[in-house]
Amino acid sequence: PRTGTSGYSENAALCLADYMANTTWGIGAAIGAADGIDSASLIAAANICDEVVAKVGGGTERRYTCNGVVTLDQTPKNVIEAMLSAMAGTCGWQAGQWQIFAGAWRAPTITLTDDDIADGGLQLSTRQSAADNFNAVRGQFVSPENDWQPDDFPSYESAVYLAEDGGERKYTDITLPFTTSASAAQRLAKIHMERQRKQMTVSLTGKLTAWRAAVGDTVNLTYARWGFASKPFEVTSVGLEIASDDGGPRLVPSLT
Fold first, then answer.
1. Distance of CA 21 to the CA centre of its chain
2. Is the Cα dihedral 239, 216, 174, 50 positive or negative?
3. How many angstroms from the chain centroid is the CA of residue 197?
4. Could you tell me if 34 and 41 are in contact, meaning their C-beta atoms sit under 8 angstroms apart?
5. Cβ count within 10 A of residue 209
6. Which of 46, 77, 148, 157 could form a disulfide with 13 if both were Cys (CB 3.0 to 4.6 A apart)?
7. What is the rounded CA–CA span in Å between residue 212 and residue 88?
8. What string of pLDDT tens digits covers the 256 residues of the chain?
9. Contact 117/205 with Cβ under 8 angstroms?
10. Alpha-carbon distance 174 to 245, whole Å?
11. Quick one: CA torsion of 154, 83, 129, 195, rounded to 10 degrees?
12. DSSP 129-169
């Protein structure tokens, strides 16, 4: 979509879009089509994947690549989720198109305030349960040194979060079936941990003005009662609900 040409690529966003666009074993979501994949979000994700990052042991590599095997007994949902794991990505349906995002910081362009929130429309969860928390991530990737078979990548461990958890090391396991770089696997493991350790979650029932926020967006939330002044949050889900009041039924956006 960036050059108007076709060719071989390990770019994780482009590989995912190519699979989704396929009409035989994908979901037939053509790139740029009105009911297909949004070109702007795809191009932004592809650019992020192509960024060159330094490896701890020396050398460089592309930020996110996708290398693996799709078997036709898998559902498209499972394949898409597996391919998204190669770029810490998300994919959501918004305004009639698929939006694809790679794992990277996106500066907020939307600020939600009291004017966008329905009465009593905010719920705040500040902490995860201890059983759901972890301070180290381990798992498997596709290892070039192991004949391209699944193998363990070096675990990512946080001394800061270990101290927060009272010195008790807690692991979680992830699987990266489309990642062939151990250093990339560690970076993905770190992203997985940081997402989990940012424990504050807001459930927002809003007015229709809140509907402009989409899955994958980063939005600022200003809410004086909780001391929020342009506090950034990632939108992880968006839906429409039917609410009833004295004025009758109405549609309200629901965001997490």
1. 20
2. positive
3. 15
4. no
5. 14
6. 46
7. 24
8. 999 999 999 999 999 999 999 999 999 999 999 999 999 999 999 999 999 999 988 999 999 999 999 998 999 999 999 999 999 999 988 888 999 999 999 999 999 999 999 887 899 998 878 778 899 999 999 999 999 999 999 999 999 999 999 999 999 999 999 999 999 999 999 999 999 998 899 999 988 899 999 888 999 999 999 999 999 999 999 988 887 766 678 788 999 9
9. yes
10. 45
11. 80
12. -GGG--SEEEEEEEEGGGTTEEEEEEEEE-HHHHHHTTT--
Residues making up the chain, counted from first to last: 256
Question: What is the per-residue burial (b if ≥16 Cβ within 10 Å, else e) of 145-182?
Answer: eeeeeeeebeebbbeebeeebeeeeeebebebbbbbbb
Burial class (CB in 10 A: 0-12, 13-18, 19+), 80: buried
Give the pair of three-digit tokens for residue 124: 């705040």
pTM greater than the 0.70 cutoff: yes
Enter the DSSP assignment of 87: G
- List the one residue out of 14, 12, 101 whose CA is nearest residue 62: 12
CA 216/CA 199 separation, integer angstroms: 17
Q: For the CA atoms of the chain, what is the radius of gyration?
A: 20
